[in-house]
Every structure is written in C-alpha cells, then in structure tokens.
TrEMBL record:
Upper taxonomic lineage: Bacteria, Pseudomonadati, Pseudomonadota, Alphaproteobacteria, Hyphomicrobiales
Keyword terms of this UniProt record: Fatty acid metabolism, Lipid metabolism, Lyase, Transit peptide
Gene3D superfamilies: 2-enoyl-CoA Hydratase, Chain A, domain 1 (3.90.226.10), Lyase 2-enoyl-coa Hydratase, Chain A, domain 2 (1.10.12.10)
Transmembrane segments: none
Record keyword Transmembrane present: no
Name of the protein this chain belongs to: Enoyl-CoA hydratase domain-containing protein 3, mitochondrial
C-alpha cells in the first residue's frame, strides 16, 4: 500500500495542500490546491520539507511532482503577496521571504541526490513554469501549456528566468520572458522545457514507467551522476572534462560499479548495494 500524507494548510483553509505517496521507490508529491495550485509560503515549505525528507530516505529512489486540477501551478500566490503591501515596509520582507524560499526549493531539486520528474497536466505559469524547468525531467500532456507572463503585469519573471534560461535555448527563453505569451506543449518540447509529450490518459502510465526504470538503477550511481551533471554545466569545457574524469575514477572504485560491470560481463542481473 502507498503511504498517503496530507499537509495542513493555514488555519482558514482546508487540509490536503500537498499529497504524498511512496511506492516501489517512487515518491509522488501532488500539488493539491486547486484551481491554481499556487506556490504559497505553505506549499513551498511543504515541498521543501518533503524533498529534505526524501534526501535522507533510502526507500526513495525517484521523486515525481504532479498536481490536481486543470492548472499544474500558477506560480506565486499574488493575493498572499499583495496582502502584505500594508506592512510597515510595504511588503519588502515578505516578498524577500517568498522569493528566497522559492529559489531555495528550486536549488533543493537540483541538489537532492534523487532524480526529480515533473508530471505536468495543464498550465504551468511563472514560478510554476520555473518548477517544471527546475526538475531533472519533465513529461507533459499534449494539452499542457507554459508561460512566464510577469511582463504583462509589470513584474518581470526574474527568478523563473534562472531555471527557464538554463532549460530552454537562450533566444527561446527570452521570447517567453519578453512576450509573456503562452506556448503549447509541442513548442515547449522544441524549446527544451519538456522531454516528452503524451496523451492525457497515458501521462501517469508513462511517468511511472520512466520512474520505475530509473528507480531500478544503482542509487549511488544516480547520486554521483546527478551531482556531476549540474556541476560540470557551470565549468569551462576543459575544466568540465577534468572534473568528469575524476568523477569517473571515483565511480569506478565503487562496489556498485564493480557489480554492474561484472553483471554485464557475466550476463546476469545486477544487485545494487548503494556502495
């Protein structure tokens, strides 16, 4: 049986802000604040807590972030932000807290040593698009749409820009940021925001298949590889090769690499120890 956990929302809201289930090494975190699944402080904190928990949980091999409703996520809770304009500092401290927490969450997705897959069905806008771009893989339905529309309301999507500009090609990222226009799933794939597009009825099935395949790999190898992937991206090419070569040597010395190579040569199934 899958474990189901609901996080409590603020006192004036209902239960079930974030749903959690763990089965066969795959942790599903489902945004459950329809209709917009906004990234409120409460939801950001819940997601952060779950990723920190997953980081240390040996039973978690892969994390999937999904949602309920017609909108994957509309980004920051503008009503929550606007309510703090009456603060003495006109909301500056709360704005800083919100944007910093969101940035920390995106960094946590990159740093958690488990692959994170975005399962997208619906609109992913602003920080919601940032969330998709920050995940290691993204699979969406053929009716999903994406945008960074801050420019339309006088608030440039500067923090979403960080993730989007690293996932999408540079000029396509600028197109999204400067126009604020919504792009369809096919365009998002062309831009580099998503890996695959599938019919709605097959989304969960395809994501589950991806997750199961990845969960069957050596957890230590996945940890080593994910960390190396993001570190080498920021290095000049020669330094990247030097770094990657050192990582390969360290990886070769692990028991899982010895087991995997031995199993391949011996034509048998590998038995991973995570060592």
């Amino acid at each position: 049986m899958a474990e189901i956990v609901s996080f409590r929302k603020e006192a004036d809201r209902t239960d079930g802000l974030l749903l959690r289930s763990l089965r066969d090494g795959v942790l599903r975190l489902v945004l459950n604040d329809p209709p917009a699944n906004v990234l409120s402080i409460a939801l950001l904190e819940a997601l952060m807590a779950e990723l920190e928990r997953a980081e240390a949980d040996l039973d978690v091999r892969v994390v999937v972030i999904a949602s309920t409703g017609l909108v994957f996520s509309a980004g920051h809770d503008l009503k929550e932000l606007t309510a703090h304009r009456v603060d003495e500092d006109q909301g500056a401290a709360f704005f800083g807290k919100s944007f910093r927490l969101c940035a920390d969450l995106m960094l946590k997705i990159a740093h958690v040593p488990k692959p994170v897959i975005a399962e997208v069905d619906g609109l992913a806008t602003a920080a919601g698009c940032q969330l998709v771009a920050s995940c290691d893989l993204a699979i969406c339905t053929d009716t999903s749409t994406f945008c960074t529309p801050g420019v339309n309301i006088g608030l440039f999507c500067s923090t979403p820009m960080v993730a989007v500009s690293r996932a999408a090609h540079r000029k396509q990222a600028m197109e999204m940021l400067l126009t604020g226009e919504t792009i369809d799933a096919s365009t998002a794939k062309d831009f580099g925001l998503v890996n695959r597009i599938v019919p709605k009825q097959y989304l969960a099935q395809v994501v589950s298949k991806y997750a199961a395949v990845i969960a069957g790999k050596s957890p230590l190898t996945l940890k080593i590889g994910k960390e190396a992937f993001y570190r080498q991206l920021e290095l000049p090419v020669e330094a990247a090769y030097d770094y990657a070569s050192r990582v390969m040597v360290e990886n070769m010395l692990t028991r899982d690499a010895q087991e995997g190579i031995g199993a391949f040569l011996g034509k048998r199934k590998s038995e991973w120890k995570g060592e």
